Amino acid sequence: MISPAQTPLYEIKANLFKALAHPARIRILELLAAAPDTAAPVSYLLAETGLEASHLSQHLATLRRHGVVTSVRSANVVTYRLAHPKISELLAIARVFLLDSLASSSEQLRIAQGLPAGHLDTAGHLDGTAP
Fold it and tell me: How does pLDDT run across 37-76, given as a tens digit for each residue?
C-alpha cells in the first residue's frame, strides 16, 4: 500500500476533478469566484443556489475535504472562500474550452445543414454513419 505522500499526481488530479464533478459544486465555486474577496456567507450561497441547506452543506464539505474551499466561522455566520486564486482561473479556462467546443459543434452543424439532402441518411447522420 502506498502512503498519501507517494500518491501519483495524476491520481490526486483525478480526485480533484471528482470533487468538481457536480453542477451544484461548480455553481458554488462560480459564486465564490464572483464574490468580493472570493468569499461569501452560507446564507448567500443558499439563496443563490436554491439548494436545501443539507445539500449545500454536503457539497461544501466535499469541496472542503478536497482543499478547494476553506471556511471561517464568526459567531453564527460561516463564510466560505476559494482556497486558492487559481481556482477562478481553472473555472475560466473550462468556460473558454466549453464555449470553443460548442462554437465548433455549431459550425459543424451549420455546415452539415448546408449540405444537399443526399448527404444525410434518414436518421440525420452524415454519410449514413451512426453517431
Answer: 889 999 999 999 999 999 999 999 999 999 999 999 999 9
Neighbours of 129 (CB within 10 A): 8
55 sits in the region (left: phi over 0; alpha: psi -120 to 50; else beta) called alpha
Burial-class residue 69 by CB neighbours within 10 Å (0-12, 13-18, 19+): buried
Q: What nine digits make up the cell of 95?
A: 468556460
Overall pTM > 0.90: no
User: Residue for cell digits 443558499?
Assistant: 46
CA–CA separation, 90 and 19 (whole Å): 14
Do 48 and 29 touch, CB atoms closer than 8 A? no
Altogether, the residues listed in the chain come to a count of: 131
